[in-house]
């Protein structure tokens, strides 16, 4: 896969920027080219937040993603906004605890995952983002499944080192769940 | 090879400035460059440096003027409306022939405008900005790596030519994280015999001033300064030429617009259209010569900008009206998509006006 453009979208507080950062560090450690660009501005408060992560084997042109190869939609407004921007043949991951409707397109691969519910069952209701990330790593080989912890250490600040294990567990659960 | 780290563009500028020996920062927070100010606030006090959040942008730039007078490496950063406020001080610093670094992480304007990325301060950055005849050395990074590298270079050039330098970036590059190899620590080696550091009763007073009431003296000062500018225009032009060897269409773009245009060049080449790009890295001095040379073999130029069309004037002057120059632009914080650039060039190739 030469260039993969991933858009992760949800509302503020769902950790979409964090999930993107994790992927970015994972790609960095695999010596891939990458860029990470958050949406910034008034829409971050209460509305949708998103981040664009490009992972590539070649130098990256624009870090701005208009037509993602992969969309992770963590809430309905994000799916509404970005569903039609995904390239034909692309992949959409739908957070199906919060999004009740199905994807309307038939030219993309779709995975429905009740990540919020799964995260709650793990005792980590805030980690739906990492459950989805685990699923992404399983279905789309943009980064490898090895050494997840090394990349996590880069994004989980030392102040919150106690949260490393639960983040890892969330990723692994998302990775192994069927659906 | 040095380790690659992941950083936001704003942070890369800050870290590169510290590694270039900058220990004095004066600023006032404004989106989308606030991470830079925050980074300095966190790091400088621990390094024995000075971080000061001034009461206003005007105060901040005059504090920069003060430290610059002592020959120490000093910087400020802001975004478009804040940079407008600093113009008086920048003119004084240029008039006093002092090195200092000014960072502009541009956002949409005019007025308060918006907080999304823009390149609409091009005129302000390259044509003076404040009053009087002067220039800044203006460097335009187009990646997080260049945010770091050009910051280090800007300090060196400013010291070498005794003039203020500017990093003209934009909100996208400020916010983007990319892998970066940080520049080595390097110590300032330029002698600054003009610096106001106390005579210790051992030498004549140094005077830092921009006031010359005798017209002949002011004129001579201006002439001398422009001799230096001429030398800089001959020796410090920097640009990147991309796929230009056989190009029929020359895109001219800097910063984030160049990143978008690079995608457009790739897409056009896939369609068999010979597009290339000249990416100015210095916009003052502007890469006139390479653009003039391109005019001998391309069919047309396309200036891609996040403004209503500012750099296009310099492109036209540089290519001396030999070929048509078209504009591909968005403003208000919107970035032209690679498709918009591609479509324009395809239209030209199709023989449209």
User: Strand count, sense and closure of the main sheet of chain A?
Assistant: 6 strands, mixed
Q: How large is the radius of gyration of chain A?
A: 15 Å
Are there runs of chain B of 5+ residues with pLDDT below 50, and where? none
Number of helices of chain B: 12
Explain what the structure shows.
- The complex is a heterodimer of chains A (about 180) and B (about 350).
- In chain A, helix 1 crosses helix 5 and helix 3 crosses helix 4 (about 130-140).
- Chain A has one domain (about 5-175): Pyruvate-ferredoxin oxidoreductase, PFOR, domain III (Pyruvate-ferredoxin Oxidoreductase, domain 3, 3-Layer(aba) Sandwich).
- Chain A starts with a strand and ends with a helix.
- Chain A contains six helices and six strands, in the order βαβββαββαααα.
- The longest helix of chain A has 14 residues, at about 15-30.
- Chain A is of the alpha/beta class.
- In chain A, strand 4 (about 70-75), helix 2 and strand 5 (about 90-95) form a beta-alpha-beta unit.
- With about 350 residues, chain B is of the alpha/beta class.
- Chain B folds into two domains: about 5-235, 3-Layer(aba) Sandwich (Rossmann fold), CATH 3.40.50.970; about 240-350, Rossmann fold (3-Layer(aba) Sandwich), CATH 3.40.50.920.
- Chain B is about 40% helix and about 20% strand.
- Chain B has twelve helices and 14 strands.
- Chain B has helices at about 10-20, 35-45, 55-70, 80-95, 120-125, 145-160, 170-175, 215-235, 255-270, 290-295, 310-320, 340-350, and strands at about 5-10, 25, 50-55, 75-80, 100-105, 135-140, 165-170, 175-180, 240, 250, 275-280, 280-285, 300-305, 325-330.
- In chain B, helix 10 crosses helix 11.
- The longest helix of chain B is centred in the middle third of the chain and has 21 residues, at about 215-235.
- The termini of chain B are far apart.
- The model of chain B has no long low-confidence stretch (mean pLDDT about 95).
- The chains are: A alpha/beta (about 180), B alpha/beta (about 350).
- The interface of A and B includes residues 33, 34 and 35 of A.
